[in-house]
Write a structure and sequence with these properties.
Blueprint: E1 4-7, E2 11-18, E3 32-38, H1 40-50, E4 55-62, H2 65-76, E5 80-87, E6 92-99, E7 104-109, E8 128-131, H3 137-149, E9 153-156, H4 168-171, E10 176-177, H5 181-187, E11 196-200, E12 206-210, E13 213-217, H6 230-243, H7 248-262, H8 275-278
Helix pairs in contact: 1-6, 6-7
């Protein structure tokens, strides 16, 4: 029985590296191209398992080679994939531009991820449930409610942040909200509730807001190469630490260090650090 359950997306990342991110209507010459298993849900599940967490993934992939590769990749680090089902659709993909400064822009085509429906949500007892917003919002709400019924701690990565804000029925079931600065600006009032908010600040670390107190946790200095999945690694590490009984501030410090290590190399899941690297 896994301590951490991740309900979310699986996408194959199609990545182009270039001197900078092109503007609308512009064609530039890139320096590197590769495909790599990704998706915010799968990124978090993979990173948590690589950090020695006990993890199970719930999601959907297409009946294609991308789908098979993504399931096998999760299984290779010990993540349980029994609840990653195959559907008659194309697997989700993410088209990613990465600049030589480590910045990125991403277009996600959900594909099979839209086949993960509220009625599909079921999982064993666990201590932490990780959620994101790359699957239907009704499914995310169902997963959060299911988790709370089983007394699991719910961590929501509100990405991609909806312009209309987060539904009240979802926020009611969330224990920890983890936006980055862009998402926080979009969500606005959702950050003012009594729940715990961990604001991800990139190279500046994170700000833990809990119990009426705000604590800034600085990042370690690194040479950033690719920031694509840093937020996912952060959430994964946070979940692992909390599932092992760490206090919130200690869990944030662990997460900040893991995320910092991840930006020093290319790829989403391939950038995830091992437990030995973070400890």
């Amino acid at each position: 029985m896994a301590k951490i359950v991740v309900v979310g997306s699986l996408n194959m990342d199609v990545v182009a590296v270039a001197p900078r991110i092109p503007v609308a209507g512009e064609t530039i010459i890139g320096s590197k191209f590769f495909t790599s298993p990704g998706g915010k849900g799968a990124n978090q599940a993979y990173a948590a398992a690589k950090l020695a967490g006990s993890v199970a993934m719930v999601g959907r992939v297409g009946d294609d080679e991308f789908g098979r590769q993504m399931r096998e990749n999760l299984a290779s680090v010990g993540c349980a994939v029994d609840a990653v089902k195959t559907v008659p659709d194309a697997s989700g993909v993410a088209l990613i531009h990465v600049s030589e400064r480590g910045e990125n822009s991403i277009v996600v085509v959900p594909g099979a991820n839209h086949a993960l429906l509220p009625g599909d949500i079921t999982f064993d007892e666990c201590s932490v449930v990780l959620l994101q917003l790359e699957t239907p919002i009704e499914t995310v709400i169902a997963a959060a409610r299911f988790a709370k019924q089983r007394n699991a701690r719910v961590i929501l990565d509100p990405a991609p942040a909806p312009q209309a804000g987060l539904p009240r029925e979802l926020l009611e079931s969330v224990d920890i909200l983890t936006p980055n600065e862009t998402e926080a600006a979009i969500l606005g009032d959702a950050l003012e509730s009594p729940r715990t908010v961990i604001l991800k600040l990139g190279q500046r670390g994170c700000e833990l807001r809990s119990g009426g107190k705000s604590t800034l946790i600085p990042a370690i200095r690194v040479n950033a190469v690719d920031t694509t999945a840093a937020g996912d690694v952060f959430n994964a590490a946070l979940a692992v630490a909390l599932s092992e009984g760490a206090e919130l501030e200690a869990a944030c410090r662990f997460a900040v260090k893991a995320a910092a290590i991840s930006v020093t190399r290319l790829g989403a899941q391939s950038s995830a650090p091992s437990r030995d690297e973070v400890s």
